[in-house]
Amino acid sequence: MRSSTPSPRTPGDWGSTIAAVLALLPLAADAAEEGKKVILAMLVVGLVFVSVIAVGELAHYLRSRRR
Q1: How many domains are contained in the chain?
Q2: Mean of the per-residue pLDDT values for the chain?
Q3: Of all helices (H) and strands (E), which one includes residue 48?
Q4: Chain centre to alpha carbon of residue 22
Q5: Structural domain contains residue 10
Q6: Looking at the domain assignment, is residue 63 inside a domain?
Q7: What is the rounded distance in angstroms from the CA atom of residue 37 to the CA atom of residue 44?
């Protein structure tokens, strides 16, 4: 025999919405980690640019000092 009363977990229940949001939380954490990696890579590239400029200026200074 089938039950005539509806199940306590119906599709309109908040439980399915909360489950969907909880399923997306690991993706948000992955996006945050990816953003941290991008920022770190940008800082490293900036450091490389600054170091190349510093080496060039140092070479220019040392060359002018010899003369």
Answers
A1: 1
A2: 81
A3: helix 14-66
A4: 19
A5: no
A6: yes
A7: 11
**Residue 2 confidence (pLDDT) above 70:** no
Helices and strands in the chain: count of H runs, count of E runs:
1, 0
Q: Domain of 64?
A: 31-67
Task: Give a yes or no: residue 4 inside a domain.
Answer: no
What are φ and ψ of residue 9, in 5° steps? -100, 95
pLDDT digits (tens, 9 = 90+) for 50-67: 999 999 999 999 999 887
Q: How far apart are CA 23 and CA 30, in angstroms?
A: 12
Q: Is 29 helix (H, G, I), strand (E, B) or coil?
A: helix
pTM: 0.53
* Other CB atoms within 10 Å distance of the CB of residue 29: 10
Residue 16 is assigned to a structural domain of this protein: no
